[in-house]
Every structure is written in C-alpha cells, then in structure tokens.
Amino acid sequence: MSAAAKTVQKSVDRLRGQMIRTARRFRDYNFRQYFVQHVKDDFAALAKLSEEEQRKFLATEGRDKLRQLQRMALVNQMYAKRPVYFDTAAQKPHRRQDDGTGKPVIE
C-alpha cells in the first residue's frame, strides 16, 4: 500500500469515526440507531471503491455529509422529547441489594 493510499485510508477512517460520534449524539434512540447504522453501511460501501473514488468522496461529499449530520443532531438535541425506555434503563445503575440472606431487599 502506497503512502498516498495510507493517507486516504486514514482520512476515511477519521471521517467515519467523526460521523459515528456525531450520530451517537442524537437523543432519540430510533434516530441514533438509524444514523449509526447508516454511517456504517455507507462506509462499508465506500471501502469497496477504488482509492481515487474514495479521494473524490472525501473531497466532495464526505465533509458535507458530516456537517449535515452535525446540524441534524443539534436540532434533534434542541427539540427531542423525553428519553425512551432504552435510554433511561441504560442510565440507571443495576445494583442488587440484599440483607445477607441472599434475597433481594424490596424497598
């Protein structure tokens, strides 16, 4: 792999990471899952393209798609409703309380 190819691959990987991090900023679970999967699918398809096509994608579409995703995530954060069950359940600590008998204590 040439130095230019490594540079392109590094740029593609960096852009993919930025887009996935941005997609994870959506508050709504369904939007978040959709955009994370969408980014992964887009970059899986991009990996099958030639180095020149990847370079062209980075120069034309890549940064624009990242900025668009960032704007959508920001708007979603501003107007998102209450968190869905999956989000609230993931934030609660799962602690088992017992009084030494091995049975959970009901509060």
UniProtKB/TrEMBL annotation:
Similarity comment: family membership: Belongs to the complex I LYR family.
Domain Complex 1 LYR protein: start-end pairs: 18-67
GO (cellular component) term, any one: L-cysteine desulfurase complex
Protein name: Iron-sulfur_cluster_assembly_protein_putative/Gen eDB:LmjF.33.1355
Protein's GO biological process: iron-sulfur cluster assembly
Xref: Pfam families: Complex1_LYR
UniProt region (Disordered), positions on chain: 86-107
Biased composition annotated in UniProt, kind: Basic and acidic residues: 96-107
Signal peptide: none
